[in-house]
Amino acid sequence: MPEPYPLSAQMAAFVAESQRFGAADNSLATQRAAYGALCRAFSPPRPAGLTINDLQLAGVAVRRYLPDQPAPAAGWPCLLYLHGGGWMLGDLDSHDFICAYLAQQLGIVVVAVAYRLAPEQPFPAALEDCLTVWQALRDGLLDVPLEQARLAVAGDSAGGNLAVALCLALRATGQQQPCAQALIYPVLSARPLPSHQHCADAPLLTHAELQACLDSYLADPEQRQNPLALPLAAPDFVGLAPAFVAAAEFDPLRDDAAHYAERLALDGVPVVFEPGLGLVHGCLRGLGRVAEVDRLYQHLCTWLTTALGR
Fold first, then answer.
1. Quick check: is 251 catalytic?
2. Rounded distance, CA 25 to CA 45, Å?
3. Is 83 a catalytic residue?
4. Which of 96, 129, 251, 256 is catalytic?
5. Nearest C-alpha neighbor of 90 from the set 65, 61, 68
6. Average pLDDT per run of 10 along the chain, which is 310 residues long?
7. Pick from 169, 185, 200: which is nearest to 86 by CA?
8. Facing residues of 182 across strands?
9. How far apart are CA 87 and CA 119, in angstroms?
10. Which of 18, 157, 195, 216 is catalytic?
């Protein structure tokens, strides 16, 4: 492990095991196959007490996680979860255990979105799919009743980007904000930030890999000035949903999260910032293996419990 990244023994073991799943070449098919194998290797059995179904909402594939208990009188609190993978990788299976864990721990409905992937479908396709599903939830199209005042959005990495962009798009059209936004090591900017260089060779996400994802999603350089593509380009964040923002200490994207949290606070948005000491990008897969990751989940669940009124 490089000298600048003093990882705990558990985290170092997690990184070493993850690196065994590196793609043999740079072809998109090989990268997707390797990522799928990685996610399967780190997916524990689903928790008991959930009914899980794959559905279509307004033409977009989703997976719905429903606790096996009677619906609350006012309807279910619901979390829309947007998966990471650099807008290029991932699907309903890659983050399945994360969604199942949150549904079981929080006693809420979780809806995961199989949004279209780049480079075949670059910006704004993924965001359009997420907004379509969000509107379907607002319109009561899910097959279980939801409490409209308790709809939240969450995402990791590229999914964190899409979660913030969703909030900005709703604000731009005068629509109601989610009751909460929860972001884990989100990618929010293409402009150089100190962590992009300080953590350029960080384990599990290098600066070069980040740039490849940005190039795939945002082929037109002018798109990088669009806040719906890279939200830190927004002039302000006034009126956005209360936020939980988690960084990873050893991650080129560390400052994306920190800057977003700072700007939310300056614009009067309630925000909790988790600095993610000892964490690396993609570490959500380390649940049950790495103590630092378990603490992140605990903090996230505690915050979401309050934000969703559980």
1. yes
2. 30
3. no
4. 251
5. 61
6. 79 97 92 97 95 97 97 97 98 98 98 98 98 98 97 98 98 98 97 94 96 95 96 98 98 98 98 98 97 98 94
7. 185
8. 154, 244
9. 8
10. 157
What six digits make up the tokens of 284? 């959500």
- Show the domains of the chain with their CATH numbers: 27-307 (3.40.50.1820)
32-39, Cβ contacts within 8 angstroms, sequence gap of 24 or more: 32/88, 32/89, 35/85, 35/89, 35/90, 35/94, 36/91, 36/93, 36/94, 38/285, 39/90, 39/93, 39/94, 39/95, 39/285
Indicate if 94 belongs to the active site: no
For 114, the token pair is 């199989």
